[in-house]
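Input/output pair, single chain:
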Amino acid sequence: MKKIIVLVLLLFAGLMCSSSWAFTIKAITVVGNQRIPTDTVLNYIPVKVGDDLGPSNTGAVISALYQTGFFDKITLGREGNTLVIHLSERPTIGRLKISGNVTIKSEQLTSVLKSVGIEQGRAYDNVILEKIRQSLLDQYYLLGRYNAHVIVRATPMDRNRMLVKIDISEGLVAKVKRINIIGNHAFDDKTLIKQLDVATTGLFSYFTKTDRFSQEKLDASLDKLRNYYMDRGYLRFAVKSSQVAMTPDHKSIFITIVIDEGQVYRVKAIHFQGRTILSSKELAEKNTLHVGDIFSRKAVMDTEKAINDALGDQGYINAEINLHPTFDETHHEVILTYLIKQGRRMYVRHITFIDNVKTNDNVLRRESLQLEGAPVSSGRIEDSKGRMSRLPFIKNVDTSITPVPGSNNQVDVHYKVKEDNAAQASLSVSYGRLTGVGFGVGLNQKNFLGTGETLGINATRNRYEQVFGIDFTNPYYTEDGISRSISLSASKFYPHLANATNSYNDNEYSLSVLYGIPVGQSTSVSQRVQLGYGYDQTQLHLVAPSIQVLSFVKQHGRQFHQLELTAGYSLDSRDHAIFPTKGGLQTIGATLYLPLSGQSLKYYILNWSGSWYQPIAGQFIGLARGNLGFGNSFSGGDGFPFFRNFYAGGIGSVRGYTGNTLGPTDNTTDGYGNRNHTGGNALATGTLGLIFPNFVSDSLRTVAFIDAGNVYNTWNNKKYQGGGSGPLRYGTGLEIDWLSPMGPIEVSATKALNPRSGDDTQFFDFSLGANFG
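Output:
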């Protein structure tokens, strides 16, 4: 209709000009414009003062102004030799008001409208109302919300503007009722449907949401189906069609996928073409397919990546590897030819760091394995990124490589870092069945003065322990990356408040120096050797001493000054420090205590701990943990101090048994007639667990487990510290770990499987401040 009106106006203008409108323009006057400046209008029209206006160009003037989209009505008039242009401006969109949307944010919807030319300040036309409605509906249809409704209304505002109100009813996501696959012979429907991102409603659908349809999910599913077949040799596999049928209420979806499997292809020959520094042997080692194997798309991609990585590590970061297959349709075989374009070897001119406001450049530079002036190594750059990301004051690291202007073989490497808050003043509250309510206060600077060094001052107090400590760590005490930590601490320990003996309390003061020596370089495995020394002073205060404690104090005294020598090794291959999904952490340590005074002791303590995580099937993860400890005196059992004993029971040990209540007892009793627990010089605990898939939150983890363990006194310690541990104790149950805003929380419900007479069991255990690594 609009085009017809324009044509009529142009025809009318032409007729008028043919009779009496032919004249030379001496001036131009614009009437009716409000927002559009006169100079802008004059720039739009194809005539100016001094031009002749006649039948040949009158229509062009009107057409040019209509094409701007700013005007509803345009007429031309003449006053003498003055051209008068009468305009009626279209209203503009003064405001877009969106309501009712939850799934898609208003910013996203506004961006969608802007992409089709609808935004505040643009000219308004009634036609755009339908355009707005349809554009927004399309966005909801992509999300599978086929019963969404959009109502668009426009109301006038001042200054010739319009308020456009958009009311949205998002509706519900249509759910997949049935999936049919037609044309499959090699694999059954159940196997193929498992490969899809969409699924019919199942037991975990409320959490996984896989039964909620969207076109994006369907497209991704078809890609996965195609990849599944091509990874198994079906090179000619094709999706012939995918049809989506909807129920009349728009709540359910039926999907029909028609496929053509084709035949299985085997590899007939493999060739590498192109000049490269890699030898034929090296190329063959990178190849994951061999002659006679069934073709696999994944294996081809792995081969291309392996070659690319090998060249990238040698400085050829612009290498291109392309596969050119040749098919033998008769025998269903394929010849694979990898065409390698090595490109030019690139060197690093400068390494720069961006956005490190609080951290000195040298702190980051020492983590970089890539050197300036050396060939670019994509592996070293990635390793460097991983090392920087593990710094406790760095949240994230992004890398980029840019060519040097004017050079054909130089690049600059840039590390863009996102820093964490390095200074932390903390006030914490913790709770455990064993520790009771605990409080902590601390001031920790993880990046002291931008040097990467750590300074911490902390004090904690719970039911049975008070600890004050000062720690200082220099991660690069030497240029080779050897760290040095200095620690000063003072503590008080009340065993009877931790379910142990009421024989004594102790005060301990220590000063120690520990060196950490890195072993090897790898992004996936961290290895360190620890060596250290220190001074330790222990003061015993007798309360209601047992015979064993009295005997020990009579022989050795109540105050001990010790030289402490420490050695250890750690290997960490976990993918995450919190909630790992694969890899493991092992630590082994030995501490020697040597006398510095006449009454001091000579003894040693050995520790080993390990944890492993292994994906099993789907999102199920196997878990195994173990802890071993052993201590003894160099002079026999009577010289190993009871205040260094190991304890077991409760969270972190053998759940189902009250904390610290397993193992040997002494001759004293508590208020209920039960013997007091003394711990032992040998410890063995372990856990086997199954971590369940988590569909609720990344901050939540559920584990079914079996715990086992106990504490013992070996033969030469039983005489002085007691026995009666009995066999290993077992417990099984369910554990829930939550990274709450208050801190990590562990809750467990455990059934003690083989308690003995006198064992103190508990079904429920709880800890705020647990370790989830």
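Residues 1-19 have pLDDT under 50 and may be disordered. The first strand starts at residue 23 and ends at 24.
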